[in-house]
Amino acid sequence: xxFDGLVLHKVLKEIKDNIVGDRIKNIxxxxxxxxxxxxxxxxxxxxxxxxxxxxxxxxxxxxxxxxANFAQFLRKKIRNGRVINVEQLGLDRIGFFEIESYDxxxxxxxxxxxxxxxxxRNSNVILVNEDNKVEESLKRVYKKFRPIIPGVKYLPYYDDxxxxxxxxxxxxxxxxxxxxLMGFSKKSTGFLKEIGIQRAVKDLKKPxxxxxxxxxxxxxxxxxxxxxxxxxxxxxxxxxxxxxxxANQSRLLEIKRDLEKRVKSEIDRLEKTKEQILQDxxxxxxxxxxxxxxxxxxxxLYKIKKGERYFTVTDWNTGxxxxxxxxxxxxxxxxxEKLYKxxxxxxxxxxxxxxxxxxxxxxxxxxxxLFETISSAEEIETLIEIKEEMKDIGLISENKKSKxxxxxxxTFRKFNYKGFEIxxxxxxxxxxxxxxxxxxxxxxxHTHEIPGSHTIIKSSGKEIPEEVIDYAAKIAATFxxxxxxxxxxxxxxxxxxxxxxxxAKPGMWLYKNYETIIVEPFREIPExx
Length: 529
Description:
Elements lengths: L4 H15 L6 E3 L5 E5 L4 E5 L5 E5 L11 H10 L3 E7 L5 E10 L4 E10 L6 E5 L5 E4 L48 H10 L1 H8 L4 E6 L2 E5 L8 E4 L1 H48 L1 H16 L10 E5 L6 E5 L6 H44 L4 H13 L7 H4 L9 E5 L2 E5 L3 H10 L5 E5 L7 E3 L8 H13 L9 E7 L3 E2 L10 E2 L3 E5 L10
Helix pairs in contact: 5-7, 6-7
């Protein structure tokens, strides 16, 4: 999201059309790094927090009741002042509002320039008087080569030796040094190389920004973003949409990380439990040996002498000698009792482990499936539904605040291919709903023994061609844990062959009479109809 000099050029044109001739009603600092100027019908927000930007707003954002020091100073100097001009220095990320304000102390009109330098961590807002001296700045700078403190002469951080494509003769530009172009970010330079200077100049004269989507990220550009679908929006509208999308994406990632952490903790716990159960099951290998030793010990009990540590006898079945370790402090009968207790305890442990391993495997399958639904979620609403599911199973405790949370209901992912509708669940509850509501003749698909979404091809009374099944299988693989893999196995069958076991957790179904197809997941999600 480069807020470069080209974007500033268009943003300032919109601001200029709205505030020149208007008076400043008030000045605020929503946060330490921002300055908000209120006009009669609009607001201008100057933000130095990365990314630094300026934007025209129609509504007032939240501001603290008590103004910060810089806002108080600006109120004293330019509140009620009239904006007489808005300018940008070339195509650089520097501009100013020229303001005419009445000085009550001296009973005279004075002119100020409120400069804004949008230079990343060096960004600043500086009030300069008619003598071109700094009155005050949002950030004071004490560097020797360019101090920004009250009373010093203001020197804008501006290199006028760079090329401004709006001021040069385009026809004479040959062998362009792209590094010397003013106002171009790396992304804008990339677009320029594709569309050419003449097209870029025409684009800069258009009153809108190009709003487009790159992958899963929304962005804006002052010149045509070649190879991307875009729409032209007013600069303020484009900026707000991108900022909102970024804020939503940030919140999405925050919620996703929290839910993934909870599920991963449960998976780790179950994996440790499974490891212990497998160790118990492994003891079954020793049972036959223990039972044989028990038989031999019972048969030759009369030959054991108290105090012996080892007792060797011949196995009548194999003819081999078998050495049995015994406790010299116990009598032969007590040793036999100890051995049979060990056999009984091991049998009990193995039987219990056999019962537990199936349950733990089912739990692991469910939580891996749950983790995949979180990982593949693209909307906050989908994550909220998953959070509700986690509350239902007790993985998240429900408090008074969570009970008041807005319940949401999202729709299935929908695709269309060769006239057939393909539906994909976004989470386990949707998987349940999708499969339950499918017609018996619909085709149900799922990655083979891999966590993924339920996928349905709606038959609508027609025979479903193999190429449609192949396409739907690719969709199913794309919305699974194997989405980055190759040669993914996907099972498919008619919906009538799929059922949910009694008491099974959300999204957990069984199926029979299926066929398996090997497909490559889509690297980019197909466009929805």
